[in-house]
């Protein structure tokens, strides 16, 4: 596990909100922003920094309701969350950066790409989608019902969620005791602010409501993009994620064998080297086929 501390950290103040950020590096290498999943926070990335920091700087930040950022029971939306990244990048004088979005972070990454394509070096998405899917809508609605039903229902939901998001190989490797410790940490982190999960989940609604209208803007994203799902993802199956490759015009499709929804955690020995190869390769050098021919 990495014991690195950020070289710089602070808060972006926007109105009544303070958005916490961390930066690892000395501005000598290309920066990579790792965008949190729904239930994550900046420290969740710390064990994986050694995969990147030798060759890249790394930027992390907490969305409203996560980690050290402001946590209030108030609406938010994905373009605003993506906009915070642009503001933090401005503060740090980062003209362009690699953006990696996992799960919920994939939606934030898609919005950042739509709104700030000129700020991107590359785009990587894992566990996300850009299409209307009934199964995903049902999953989101069920999650909200559990969140809104109070702490007891929320604890039950954490058991359901931890069963759903991981692949078989990971569950066998970590064992029941470690899995329960992970689940308990998630429960304790949010039990007194479940509203944060509600607000972040609700922020997806306008994103999907505007999906068809925004489709031409997504299709205009020319940034080299890697779509790297877990091959055994049950939260957002491959058939849904594969559709991203029919929307974004410059994509590569690389499922991670043996991984569920959290590929970067479940198969780090596959996910991180592939990500580094993609971010460092020239367009014709990346050793994986384009999605259009895969």
Present the secondary structure layout.
Layout: E1 8-14, E2 17-24, E3 31-35, E4 57-61, H1 78-91, E5 97-102, H2 104-115, E6 120-126, H3 134-148, H4 151-165, H5 168-190, H6 194-202, H7 204-209, H8 211-219, E7 225-227, H9 238-241, E8 251-253, H10 263-266, H11 268-280
Parallel strand pairs: 3-4, 3-5, 5-6, 6-7, 7-8
Antiparallel strand pairs: 1-2, 2-4
Helix pairs in contact: 1-2, 3-4, 3-6, 4-5
Please tell me about this protein's structure.
The chain is α/β, with parallel strands linked by helices and 294 residues long. It has a single domain (8-280), classed as Rossmann fold, CATH 3.40.50. Helices cover 42% and strands 15% of the residues. The protein has 11 helices and 8 strands. It has helices at 78-91, 104-115, 134-148, 151-165, 168-190, 194-202, 204-209, 211-219, 238-241, 263-266, 268-280, and strands at 8-14, 17-24, 31-35, 57-61, 97-102, 120-126, 225-227, 251-253. The chain has an 8-stranded mixed beta sheet, sandwiched between helices. α9 links the parallel β7 and β8. α3 runs antiparallel to α6 (194-202) and α4 packs antiparallel against α5 (168-190). It is globular. 39% of the residues are buried. The model is unreliable at 288-294 (pLDDT under 50).
Top keywords for this entry?
eight-stranded mixed beta sheet, Rossmann fold, 11 helices, alpha/beta, 294 residues
């Amino acid at each position: 596990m990495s014991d690195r501390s950020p070289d710089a950290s602070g808060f972006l103040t926007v109105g009544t909100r303070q958005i916490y950020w961390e930066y690892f590096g000395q501005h000598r290498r290309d920066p990579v922003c790792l965008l949190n999943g729904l239930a994550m926070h900046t420290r969740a990335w710390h064990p994986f920094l050694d995969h990147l920091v030798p060759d890249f700087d790394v930027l992390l930040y907490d969305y409203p309701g996560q980690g050290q950022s402001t946590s209030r029971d108030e609406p938010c939306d994905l373009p605003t969350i993506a906009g915070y990244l642009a503001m933090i990048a401005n503060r740090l004088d980062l003209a362009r950066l690699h953006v990696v979005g996992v799960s919920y972070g994939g939606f934030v990454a898609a919005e950042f790409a739509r709104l700030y394509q000129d700020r991107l070096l590359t785009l990587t998405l894992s566990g996300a989608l850009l299409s209307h899917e009934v199964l995903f809508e049902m999953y989101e609605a069920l999650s909200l019902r559990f969140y809104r039903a109070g702490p007891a229902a929320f604890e039950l939901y954490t058991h359901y969620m931890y069963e759903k998001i991981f692949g078989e190989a990971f569950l066998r490797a970590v064992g029941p005791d470690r899995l329960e410790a992970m689940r308990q940490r998630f429960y304790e982190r949010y039990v007194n602010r479940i509203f944060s999960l509600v607000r972040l989940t609700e922020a997806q609604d306008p994103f999907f409501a505007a999906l068809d209208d925004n489709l031409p803007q997504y299709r205009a994203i020319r940034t080299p993009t890697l779509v790297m799902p877990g091959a055994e993802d049950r939260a957002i199956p491959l058939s849904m994620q594969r559709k991203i490759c029919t929307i974004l015009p410059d994509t590569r499709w690389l499922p991670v064998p043996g991984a569920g929804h959290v590929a970067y955690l479940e198969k780090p020995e596959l996910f991180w080297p592939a990500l580094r190869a993609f971010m460092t390769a020239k367009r014709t050098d990346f050793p994986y086929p384009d999605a259009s021919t895969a």
